[in-house]
Amino acid sequence: MDPTAKLLNDYGPLRNLESLDQKLRRCWKxxxxxxxxxxxxxxxxxxxxxxxxxxDAVWKSQLEQMHSHVLERIRSTSGAGLIEKxxxxxxxxxxxxxxxxxxxxxxxxxxxxxxxLLRRIYKDSRRKAQA
Length: 131
Description:
Layout: H1 3-10, H2 12-17, H3 20-32, H4 34-38, E1 40-46, E2 49-54, H5 57-65, H6 67-78, E3 85-90, H7 116-130
Parallel strand pairs: 2-3
Antiparallel strand pairs: 1-2
Helix pairs in contact: 3-6
């Protein structure tokens, strides 16, 4: 078990502040390892079944074969003994917004003109004036 997860699990006041779903999400990486955690995530605990989203059908198939091992590890890591089953389903990863890239060159003031026709006229007239 990851020492940080163990410390947080053992510290009573923090344990009472979070829901069981949050605790399972926090313990997921230390339970299954970084490689599997990068391709899967805890979706929710519904009854006694823990639902896990995976990136694709290959990961789903591999994790279904490891069902008993994953169940044992998540029980021991989180201390949640009420989990009886782990269900895997394909949930493609969300596409995260890319950070706005700063241009290497100074931005052209004409690019702030919304109308493409007016923007082109402005750029043409500016180029003629500079020539």
